[in-house]
């Protein structure tokens, strides 16, 4: 598209200036109008320079599947069921649906439509109001942190998957090299409790008995997989087995995104749909187990009195924003690959319906199995109900170890876990890379995209190495409560690391806004007007012309 310069006069303020416009619609652009319809000089390009074409999805279904794969993740399986049970069963669905309609779906639509309209990722899209461009940077910081630690769940899942192909599951018995003298395979008399329902909190599941016995599944998780040291100041050595798993999943993510949405749109058909096949198989199996009915009843039985508790509304709101993947900038990036006139309103409702339905369906699958586990151990289901990694790597492995053909069901579960996390991970990487590449000058975009992706994956993998040490809980510092692991209290500098992670994203918008306001000349009102005025791109030219013609006809 050729860009030329024309003189422009605003009818309202009378100001004349040179603006850039598109050559092929040059004769259609009005020579007068309002300043909000102008193309600012910073968007002007040299004449005859070819603007890079924006990549688009091969099919619109690719976009829907990628959004489903990104939004439908581990939180739907290991967080929603627990919150539903914790907050009154079926009664939890009322605030969940209300807040979905009032908050989740509108913001979901806003992010997709913003990317689609501006044809830019999370930072460039905020040129619609440059003052708020720091919000895009905040999103990029958050998704960078998420990409760094979320990959660990995949590495743990792969570790368990590999060790599921044995005649006897290694976490089902004592007497192994990693077990202690307190290890006991008899779990029925133990008091197992959950102290938290947070999304990522591996420290809040513990089982104690009067004689200090511990479960083999807990010892396998803490002593074999994590190899937890005495404290955060004792990082210890790297786990070479987890290192291999980490490298393997990063290579998998790389080859899913290295060619952009063209490759992502193909891979996601398998990674986003096959988990539903596994969930259906596990549902059929779970409902045939003794105690399954009691588990599902425990999950759905409403307690209407809890609707008056503000916590149920807080949990519903946080779950919606968590499971819809709002505020990470990835949805904006995905929307930017849509055609300009795509019906994103329809797409939003389709994706939201699939997301919420998956959460509800997953709850039946999970609690049918937990009901069986509670019946087998002769304990109340509240003793085994858990969320987060505590469900994925302690409770559920224990449950499948009690089933006939346990290795098969364990392998099936962890394969599903990897697929659920994989498309969320490579969607996060795609969103981050798109945001970064959109900021680069056009000359840099001629470099091979696979090279940029490889550099990013390598650097992030290097950062993640801190999470496979014996100190491990650099992963655990992303929390807002005082950091503890059973009886171990983290030092002040460990909490400081967590606060630095949090503030790194929260301070982006105010700092960028202050910088932009202070760097411009003129009065505060003039600077405010400039920074709240959209910066249109060349692809908006014909649509602005249509709007202008429509306004002229009406006047």
From TrEMBL:
SUPFAM superfamilies: SNF-like (SSF161070). The lineage of its organism: Eukaryota, Metazoa, Chordata, Craniata, Vertebrata. It is found in: Membrane. It comes from Eptatretus burgeri. This is Transporter. Belongs to the sodium:neurotransmitter symporter (SNF) (TC 2.A.22) family. One of its GO terms (cellular component) is plasma membrane. Na(+) binds at residues 69, 71-72, 76, 323, 355, 420, 423-424. Pfam families: SNF. Disulfide bonds join 174-183. The chain crosses the membrane at residues 63-81, 93-114, 135-162, 238-257, 269-292, 312-337, 349-374, 408-429, 450-476, 496-517. GO terms for molecular function: gamma-aminobutyric acid:sodium:chloride symporter activity; metal ion binding. It is a multi-pass membrane protein. Keywords: Disulfide bond, Membrane, Metal-binding, Sodium, Symport, Transmembrane, Transmembrane helix, Transport. It comes from the Eukaryota.
């Amino acid at each position: 598209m050729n860009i030329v310069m024309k003189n422009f006069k605003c009818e309202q303020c009378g100001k004349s200036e040179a603006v850039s416009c598109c050559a092929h619609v040059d004769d259609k652009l009005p020579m007068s109008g309002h300043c909000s319809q102008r193309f600012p000089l910073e968007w002007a390009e040299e004449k005859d320079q070819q603007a890079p074409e924006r990549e688009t999805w091969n099919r619109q279904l690719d976009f829907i599947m990628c959004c489903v794969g990104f939004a439908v993740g581990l939180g739907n399986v290991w967080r929603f069921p627990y919150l539903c049970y914790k907050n009154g069963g079926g009664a939890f669905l009322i605030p969940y649906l209300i807040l979905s309609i009032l908050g989740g779906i509108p913001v979901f639509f806003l992010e997709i439509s913003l990317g689609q309209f501006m044809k830019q990722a999370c930072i460039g899209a905020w040129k619609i109001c440059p003052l708020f461009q720091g919000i895009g940077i905040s999103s990029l910081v958050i998704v960078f942190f998420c990409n760094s630690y979320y990959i660990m769940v995949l590495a743990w899942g792969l570790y368990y998957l590999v060790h599921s192909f044995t005649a006897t599951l290694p976490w089902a018995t004592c007497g192994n090299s990693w077990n202690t003298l307190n290890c006991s395979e008899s779990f029925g008399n133990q008091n197992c409790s959950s102290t938290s329902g947070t999304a990522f909190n591996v420290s809040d599941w513990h089982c104690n008995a009067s004689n200090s016995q511990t479960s083999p599944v807990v010892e396998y998780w803490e002593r074999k997989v994590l190899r937890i040291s005495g404290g955060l100041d004792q990082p210890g050595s790297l786990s070479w087995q987890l290192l291999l798993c980490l490298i393997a999943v990063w290579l998998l993510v790389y080859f899913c995104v290295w060619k952009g949405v063209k490759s992502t749109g193909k891979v996601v058909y398998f990674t986003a749909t096959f988990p539903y096949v596994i969930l259906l198989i596990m549902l059929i199996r779970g409902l045939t187990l003794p105690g399954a009915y009691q588990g599902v009843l425990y999950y759905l039985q409403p307690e209407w009195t809890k609707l008056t508790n503000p916590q149920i509304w807080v949990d519903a709101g946080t779950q919606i924003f968590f499971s819809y993947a709002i505020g990470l900038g990835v949805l904006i990036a995905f929307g930017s690959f849509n055609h300009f006139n795509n019906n994103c309103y329809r797409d939003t409702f389709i994706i939201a319906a699939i997301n919420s339905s998956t959460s509800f369906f997953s709850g039946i699958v999970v609690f049918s199995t937990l009901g069986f586990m509670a019946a087998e151990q002769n304990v109340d289901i509240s003793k085994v109900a858990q969320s987060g990694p505590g469900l994925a790597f302690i409770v559920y492995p224990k449950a499948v170890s009690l089933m006939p053909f346990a290795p098969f069901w364990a392998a099936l579960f962890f394969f599903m876990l990897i697929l659920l996390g994989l498309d969320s991970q490579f969607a996060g990487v795609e969103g981050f890379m798109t945001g970064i590449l959109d900021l680069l000058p056009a000359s840099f975009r001629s470099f091979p995209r696979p090279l940029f992706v490889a550099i990013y994956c390598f650097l992030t993998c290097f950062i993640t190495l801190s999470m496979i040490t014996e100190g491990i809980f650099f992963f655990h510092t992303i929390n807002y409560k005082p950091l503890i692991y059973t009886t171990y209290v983290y030092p002040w500098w460990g909490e400081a690391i967590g606060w630095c992670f949090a503030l790194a994203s929260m301070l982006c918008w105010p700092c960028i806004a202050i910088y932009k306001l202070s760097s411009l000349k003129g009065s505060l009102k003039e600077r405010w007007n400039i920074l709240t005025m959209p910066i249109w791109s060349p692809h908006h030219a014909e649509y602005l012309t249509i709007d202008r013609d429509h306004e002229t006809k009406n006047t």
